[in-house]
Write a structure and sequence with these properties.
The protein has one domain. Helices cover 68% and strands 6% of the residues. It has 5 helices and 2 strands, in the order H-E-E-H-H-H-H. It has a two-stranded antiparallel ribbon. Helix 1 packs antiparallel against helix 2 and helix 1 runs parallel beside helix 4.
Length: 188
């Protein structure tokens, strides 16, 4: 049985290729100066002359950030018996039979895929914020991009916490069904 959540993995692959294409298209129409730093209100505080170095750096750093989680989703979360898994109730979880671990690992894999898609959306919105602010710093489009960026970052921070609490409950339930937890109030 495949542990990789294929729909999120494929979606992220396509989204990443679209991100690279978008970066190229936005660069082609970038004016002579573009912002590279913003305050929390979305106002540019530092500008860069039209030089591909900073743009390439932004795209390269976001690509590295995306690809490490993308590859992690594909290659690390494939072995249910791996000692590298850091899950709630880890020592007890390792004692579960392999077929009982697979649904949990699929869920973790899906979470990584969704989280990585969220991170990629943050980078896409950031490119749009830079682009719209470069053309017209006070435009409504720049304001919308800034608000979207704040919402996307909030979701990317909150989602893993909610998923962790939920995943902890799922693992606990599986451990209790297998009789691997001594009492209902045992702490991992």
């Amino acid at each position: 049985m495949d542990v990789v959540h294929t729909p999120s993995f494929r979606f992220n692959t396509i989204l990443f290729l679209g991100y690279l294409g978008l970066a190229v298209l936005l660069w082609i129409d970038m004016p002579e100066r573009y912002p590279v730093h913003f305050d929390l209100a979305g106002n540019p505080t530092r500008w860069e002359e039209r030089n591909p170095g900073m743009w390439i750096l932004i795209v390269a750093l976001s690509s590295i950030s995306f690809m490490k989680v993308h590859l992690f989703q594909r290659f690390v979360f494939t072995n249910p018996d791996s000692p590298f898994l850091n899950l709630p109730y880890k020592t007890h979880f390792q004692k579960l039979p392999g077929e009982r671990k697979l649904p949990v690992l699929r869920r973790v894999n899906r979470m990584l895929g969704l989280l990585n898609a969220g991170v990629l959306f943050v980078f896409i919105i950031l490119l749009f914020l830079i682009y719209y602010s470069a053309h017209n710093p006070g435009s409504p489009a720049a304001g919308v991009a800034n608000q979207a960026l704040l919402v996307a970052v909030s979701v990317v921070v909150i989602y893993p916490l909610v998923e962790y609490v939920s995943l902890r409950g799922v693992i606990r339930e599986k451990l209790e069904e297998e009789g691997l937890l001594g009492s209902p109030h045992e702490v991992p």
